[in-house]
Write a structure and sequence with these properties.
Layout lengths: L1 E5 L7 H11 L4 E7 L18 E5 L2 E4 L3 H12 L7 E8 L11 H11 L3 E7 L9 H15 L8 E7 L9 E4 L10 E7 L5 E7 L11 H6 L2 E8 L5 H11 L1
Parallel strand pairs: 1-2, 1-5, 2-4, 5-6, 6-7, 8-11
Antiparallel strand pairs: 3-4, 7-11, 9-10
């Protein structure tokens, strides 16, 4: 099985080192194309107004001065166009991609692009509640078996899998839950207003870990209760029931 790795935290991020070890448990045919620098929050953006520069580390490993979507597009359409992967793994993200996070996440975006290009794709994220404590070993120890089990299923062509590991040591994980995408009941956006040396206002946008009181069965609920969340996500955003009602009204 040929596996392509990418992420949004950057080529040298700790999560990429974790993902390398996960992939090594699954295959010895592994390629990497990841952003040169962190691209968190890039979602599915493309670099259209600046040139893309690619850095080669060896015949199977590259970084791109661009977004996660740029990386997957370059891998599939240029760098490895004659060596298509069987699976794309994106992550392991530093922090969860839960609820509405999936709309902003570069980690999920890389998996989305892989799905659009016809490759089964999985996004992996290691959740955190304390920025000083990371349990990379949780994702590393549990991901290989979960991925093997997932690959036994048939997926629709427009579906990707979003996996979030809870912020606890491996021995404290209580199970694996198949979940739906949740929605936070509180905002985790932080806006830090500052003034520069010339007296001009500027702002830092950031997100702080928060779960609120999530709905049972959601990805947020699973992680809050110590389970791994596995969520199949569809790229088709159409609200079918509403579209059917509208069709009757407009016909």
């Amino acid at each position: 099985m040929r596996i392509l790795l990418s992420n949004d935290d950057g080529f040298n991020a700790p999560g990429m080192q974790t993902l390398r070890r996960i992939a090594a448990e699954l295959s010895d045919d592994v390629y990497i194309v990841a952003p040169e620098k962190e691209q968190s929050g890039a979602s599915r953006s493309l670099t259209l107004h600046d040139p893309l520069r690619v850095h080669r580390y060896d015949e199977h490993e590259y970084s791109v001065e661009g977004t996660p979507t740029d990386c997957v597009m370059m891998a599939m359409n240029y760098l490895f166009k004659d060596e298509r992967p069987d699976l794309i793994l994106s992550g392991v993200n530093r922090g969860g991609n839960l609820g509405e996070d999936v709309l902003y996440s570069g980690t999920v975006a890389a998996a989305s692009e892989g799905t659009l290009l016809g490759i089964r794709s999985i996004a992996l994220s290691q959740c955190l509640l304390d920025t000083d404590t990371f349990y990379w070993e949780t994702a590393e120890s549990l991901a290989p078996d979960i991925i093997r089990r997932l690959l036994k299923f048939e997926w629709a062509p427009d579906v990707l899998i979003n996996i979030n590991f809870p912020p606890v040591p491996p021995g404290e994980v209580v199970g694996v839950d198949i979940t739906h995408q949740g929605k936070r009941d509180l905002s985790n956006l932080s806006i830090d207003a500052r003034v520069d040396a010339r007296g001009r206002d500027y702002f830092w946008l950031g997100y702080r870990p928060s779960l609120g009181t999530p709905q049972k069965g959601s990805d947020l609920w699973a992680v809050a209760n110590g389970s791994v969340s596995v969520t199949p996500l569809s790229l088709n955003l159409t609200d079918i029931p509403l579209a059917q009602k509208m069709q009757k009204a407009f016909s």
